[in-house]
Amino acid sequence: MALYVLHENPDWFPPFAAAFDAAGLDYEEWLLITGSLDFQSTPPEGIFWNRLSGSSHTRNHPYSKDYTRAVLDWLQAHGRRVVSGRWVVEMEVSKVRQLTALQAFGIDVPRTVAVIGKDDLLATAARFPTPFITKHNQGGKGLGVRRFDDLDTFAAYVASDEFEEPVDGITLLQEYVPPKNGLITRVETVGYDYVYAITADAARGGFQLCPSEACELDEAGRPVAAPSLFALREGFQHPIIDAFLDFARAYQLEIAGFEFIETDDGRIVTYDVNTNTNYNPEVEAVAPRSGPGEIANYLQRVLAETYAVTA
Ligand SMILES: Nc1ncnc2c1ncn2[C@@H]1O[C@H](COP(=O)(O)OP(=O)(O)O)[C@@H](O)[C@H]1O
Ligand SMILES: [Mg+2]
């Protein structure tokens, strides 16, 4: 019985392929970029891992989100087991959904206003305390993330060619939360279990902090930052981890990375939920457990459970 992996970015796949090979897991990739879906057809037996990324449109894959939605609707209509199922797509592609859900769950988030369309941007910003940052509702790699310290600079930006249109027309205005020591933390979870936490150096790396090896290299294959912006946050234990695991369970986020900022005055502010998560090679080299390794184990377990019940 096979595992099918639904995604659109082959560059991110090698660490997972290696972990699946090491675990002796049979898998097949379904690249969801353009294609067709015949309603008369029946999905193959197996389990399906949805790895849709909220930034797929930036890789010239504008249809991947709707293609994935369609394929997941079809798979789930046929009762197939999908890891990171249909509604996880909606969590992945919307920071509105992530932040409102986190807030309702009692997890502290940055003060945020979502502005739909461009017309209200300036008027809303005029009522928003500075400094603030902008970000795209649909992002995943720091899309549209910029800091503004005054309204005039923001007005000039909105009027300029530099203004980055969000793909769904939704821009978030968000409280700028100063990170203690310039570091943000990302907590990785697999199968509702805590794997490890990493820090990313926002002071040095800015707002584009993608941990994948494919993002860390420039076009010539050289590291874009040395030393690495990412490090294992060794032995990190905190009640926020249990809150993330409970949140993941409530929304069936079977594989998720949660990003938060700690402030000098002791706030822990969570601002990003990644359901398409990539693991940093330097961190993996020293971590007590491997992210892709845990995913391989988890998928193997799901496969055994799924076919033990229905066989
Ligand atoms: N409210 C905030 N205050 C300060 N820095 C932030 C805030 N939100 C995000 N950042 C910084 O910007 C980066 C990208 O923002 P994020 O919300 O994670 O977008 P994406 O989903 O595109 O990765 C974060 O890793 C962090 O360093
Ligand atoms: Mg992020």
Compounds present?
A: adenosine-5'-diphosphate, magnesium ion
End-to-end separation in angstroms reads 11 Å
The CATH architecture classification of the largest domain is 2-Layer Sandwich
Give the amount of beta strand, in percent: 15-25%
Number of strands: 13
CA radius of gyration: 20 Å
**Sequence stretches where pLDDT stays below 50 over 5 or more residues:** none
Order of helices and strands: EHEEHEHHEHEEHEEEHHEHEEHH
Could you tell me the CATH topology label of the largest domain: D-amino Acid Aminotransferase, Chain A, domain 1
Which quaternary structure do these chains form? single chain
**Strand order, largest beta sheet:** 11-10-9-12-13
Q: How many helical elements?
A: 11
CATH superfamily of the largest domain: ATP-grasp fold, B domain
Query: Which CATH C-level class of the largest domain is it?
Result: Alpha Beta
Kindly state the percentage of residues in helix: 25-40%
Q: How many independent structural domains?
A: 3
Which outline best applies?
A: globular
Structural category: alpha+beta
Note the main sheet: 5 strands, antiparallel
Describe the structure in your own words:
The chain has 311 residues and is α+β, with helices and mostly antiparallel strands. It folds into 3 domains: 2-91 and 296-310, Rossmann fold, CATH 3.40.50; 94-108 and 179-290, D-amino Acid Aminotransferase, Chain A, domain 1, CATH 3.30.470.20; 112-175, Dna Ligase, domain 1 (2-Layer Sandwich). It is 33% helix and 23% strand. A 5-stranded antiparallel sheet has the order 11-10-9-12-13. Strands 2-1-3-4 form a 4-stranded parallel sheet, sandwiched between helices. Strands 5-8-6-7 form a 4-stranded antiparallel sheet, with helices on both faces. The structure holds adenosine-5'-diphosphate and magnesium ion (MG).
